[in-house]
Amino acid sequence: MTTIALIGAGGKMGYRLSRNLKDSDFSVSHVEVSEQGRVRLREELGIECVDAEHAVPDADVVILAVPDTLVGKISHQLSPMMESGTMVITLDAAAPFAGHLPGRDDLIYFVTHPCHPPIFNDETELEAKKDYFGGYKATQHIVSALMQGPEESFALGERIARTIYAPVGRSHRVSVDEMALLEPGLSETVCATLLSVMREAMDEVVRRGVSHECARDFLLGHMNILSAVIFDEQPGAFSDACNKAIENGKPMLMRDDWKRVFERDEIADSIRRIT
């Protein structure tokens, strides 16, 4: 049985992983430094935590469910306890991309991240429809990268990824650089930023006299149908008026060189700020 040391087991992300690993085929030792996190694990999942000194030395896999800003520090603290051949799993590409993991060629580095449940899905149960984050009731897709280590290690990393993010649909294999293009590039720098602007636009319409309920209904409804057409979820085409509005609006909202956010130096700067 594969043994896992889950670091940060009672944190925001770690708790989700603890819940999904609880009845899995893996033997898990849970490490959590905060008293609040340890109490939550004990009372809600019946899990007792152990110290890292007890969990890490015998672990086949060490999962770092900790904030990006702490991955480098914690991984270096734990590194002396890890046997050669140990797999280290991070849940985001930021720290690995930035070179914050220990420089040990004898460790296996595996990076995995959820796509989160898609807007367009087949969920029918209420709990699944309300599981916007994923890893609980709604099916989501995942991305994974084997940063270093023997090729056969990918299968184990992917099996663990499918467990901690379950239920999982498609599993995409990418490189760490490609994962950095996806996040922070695509998901945060572009998607989160533009969605934030859309919310500001809705608030501005409300400020100018439209009721909040009306503006929200109108915006979310149009996001649904416009997204379905733009992302080929259903066949269709925008009206001439809509296309003209896009043609006139894009130069007002977007710089001509906005795709520079995907250049490697820009991604690196973004990750440097994150970590």
What does the model show?
Helix 7 links the parallel strand 6 (140-148) and strand 7. This protein has 2 domains: 3-174, NAD(P)-binding Rossmann-like Domain (Rossmann fold, 3-Layer(aba) Sandwich); 181-274. Strands 2-1-3-4-5-6-7 form a 7-stranded mixed beta sheet, with helices on both faces. The model has no long low-confidence stretch (mean pLDDT 97). It is α/β, with parallel strands linked by helices and 275 residues long. The protein is 48% helix and 15% strand. The longest helix is centred in the C-terminal third of the chain and has 32 residues, at 176-207.
Summarize this, please?
It contains eleven helices and seven strands.
Question: Do you know the CATH architecture of the largest domain?
Answer: 3-Layer(aba) Sandwich
Low-pLDDT runs of 5+ residues are none
Assembly state: single chain
Radius of gyration, whole Å = 21 Å
Proportion of strand residues: 5-15%
Number of domains: 2
Pfam family, one: PGDH_C
InterPro entries: KARI_N (IPR013116), NAD(P)-bd_dom_sf (IPR036291), PGDH_C (IPR031663), Preph/Arog_dehydrog (IPR050812), Semialdehyde_DH-like_C (IPR037161)
Domain KARI N-terminal Rossmann: 3-88
Keywords: Oxidoreductase
